[in-house]
Write a structure and sequence with these properties.
The protein has 376 residues and is α/β, with parallel strands linked by helices. It contains 12 helices and 11 strands. The chain is globular. The relative contact order is 0.14.
């Protein structure tokens, strides 16, 4: 197992490009890089460029992971590059990406069911609650796309791994795997996204562990606020997620799994949208009706987890939303956009050290060049 990072959250990844980003990952003492899609490595799927990236990763002893993209047809217009790489045929575009990934040994490929739009507050930030199409209709459309791609995945020895993303629940992903086939479909387990569905992270980890083939490792503050619960990304170990329970579950199910940090992106790379607060509208009747799989046992455990975390916040052990915004990671005023390169590197190093400590405590063998990491 190795500890790396999602390329979208690696500071200066676009500026440096894929090859230099691999060097950057090594300099940060991390063990690999997860490019969100194959197009992030080469927008034209150039075979030479892709082989060079593979060779560089191998030379540095880094894992290399990637993905295909967001396969919800109702979101396709928001990512025209997927249709373009297929010369107008989006299924061909996805197929070409699968083949290009497999050609360089990337056979675990991320897929996602939608987009989260942080400029909107509450449930309307989430494609699950679109008003032009129901979530059930979107799930059916996603299933149809996966069925079209399944033969291509099988022919190339690939798994299309659905992320436990902001829109989809772990229950729904498992039903998709049943329909598509576990021989060509798996899970990218995001350790914090399920919180937005009131899924308890440990419950969710146990549910999906047999199918987890890639990860996004992140943590979050969850606390009561007007309209529901605030959700705010935190360094791993500083939030509500119980990594001491989750990482052993994942490692036991898949000893070859890589842990990819998904940290808060630097505002120099991704300027913040107008609405900084993410709200989980857990008490809203529409929100509740939109989560029919949520059962009383798990909801009770989730609320107990929030209550226990709130006590730590009240005691001053954990900074609340506002205090965190003014910290070394946060933004003293939203307009100043002060969370830049330096702050994001601190975030990464703090998160990495915490994951390494949990792995060491639980006897999880983690092959990572941590000894080269300088103190933040």
């Amino acid at each position: 197992m190795k500890l790396g990072i999602d390329a979208q959250k690696l500071p200066e990844a676009v500026k440096r490009g894929p090859l230099a980003s691999l060097d950057h990952v090594r300099e940060l003492g991390l063990g690999g890089l997860f490019f969100t899609t194959v197009l992030d490595m080469s927008p034209t799927l150039d075979k030479v460029e892709l082989r060079d990236i593979r060779a560089k990763a191998d030379e540095l002893g880094l894992y290399l992971e990637s993905g295909v993209g967001k396969i919800n047809p109702y979101c396709s217009a928001e990512a025209p590059e997927f249709r373009a790489i297929g010369d107008g045929d989006i299924i061909l575009g996805f197929s070409r990406m699968i083949e290009a990934g497999a050609a360089i040994g990337c056979r675990e490929l991320w897929v996602s069911p939608g987009n989260f739009k942080s400029e909107y507050r509450g449930r309307l930030a989430n494609d699950r609650f679109r008003t032009d199409v129901t979530w059930e209709e979107q799930l059916l459309a996603i299933e149809k796309v996966l069925l079209k791609l399944a033969p291509v995945a099988r022919a190339n020895g690939v798994h299309l791994n659905m992320e436990t993303h902001d829109e989809i629940t772990s229950f729904e992903i498992l039903r998709l795997i049943e329909k598509i086939g576990e021989d060509c479909m798996g899970v990218v387990f995001d350790t914090a996204n399920g919180l937005q569905h009131a899924e308890h992270p440990v419950f969710a980890a146990k549910r999906v562990a047999p199918h987890v083939r890639q990860t996004h490792v992140k943590d979050a503050y969850v606390g009561r606020a007007p309209g529901g619960l605030d959700f705010q990304t935190r360094p791993v170990g500083g939030g509500i997620v119980d990594f001491g329970s989750i990482l052993p579950i994942l490692a036991t199910a898949n000893p070859d799994l890589n842990f990819s940090l998904e940290v808060a992106a630097s505002v120099e790379d991704k300027p913040r949208k107008a609405n900084p607060r993410q709200c989980i509208q857990i008490d809203d009747p529409i929100w509740r009706a939109g989560h029919p799989d949520l059962n009383a046992e798990e909801l009770d455990a989730y609320i107990a987890m929030v209550d226990a975390y709130e006590k730590r916040v009240t005691s001053g052990e954990i900074p609340d939303w506002e205090a965190y915004e003014a910290s070394q990671y946060g933004y003293p005023t939203y307009e100043k956009q002060s969370y830049g390169y330096k702050e994001s590197v601190i975030f990464i190093k703090d998160s990495a050290r915490y994951v390494e400590s949990i792995c060491a405590e639980n006897g999880i063998s983690l092959s990572s060049p941590a000894t080269k990491r300088q103190a933040a």
